[in-house]
Give the backbone structure.
Amino acid sequence: MKLVKKQSLLAVGLVALLTGCSSNTSMKEDSAQPSSEPVQNESTQDAAVQDETVQNNADSMQEKSTQDASESERLGTQWGDEVDSRVTMVDLRRVSDQPIEEMQVSYADKTYKGRALNSMSLVAGKIDFSVTTDDGNLSIYRDASNYYLQGRAGQAYRLVYKNNSSNTYEIVASVDGINVLDGSEASRYDDGYVLNPNEELVIEGFRKSEDAVASFIFSKPENAYAANTDSGSIDNTGIIGSVIYELYDPSESKPKTQQAFPADNGYAKAPK
């Protein structure tokens, strides 16, 4: 595996700031005297429609929450056995400081609903992502735009990226909010691994040195690496993240055409 050496790149401390909004609906008591006869008017019809809408929203939220892991089902990833894994530095540059793809997979010891996939298709099919164990691929479950993975405490796993194209990419991978390359708090602007054309990148664990990694092992959240390091938090356990950039060799001519990139939504920018 190869690392990317970059110049003049931004760096931030937070990967993303997720905000949730809630609204409180206040009910005002009607001061008018009630009629002795029942009346079906527009206001009661509106109230009935509003009640139905609230109930439908509640049902939708309840359905969505069935994918959330309970406290007993939650998992993290602990620092496992040492595995040989040699890396070297290369001088490649990003085509843009904005990634061309970002994805997250939530994992827990839970039977998820959705369509079972052997791998995820990234960058319009140019990259396949899968999670493997000694027994083969773990199924990834797709539910709408969300992806889920069922693990088991004590099980070792690996992140696998297969390049189906002639392009060179950089993979910035994180587990539980921790950059797998240097153990820092994960950022979309971190250094990553090089994924060469038509090759496969296998990330077996958290990097310890240029020669070895500590294998990924599913564990209870309190035993996770993120829960036991100053750069992590137990609250971030249960998430595998990937940020992908396209690379070019500065010793050759820079690509003449720039690819269009999505807007920078939901990510904190470094001050200028």
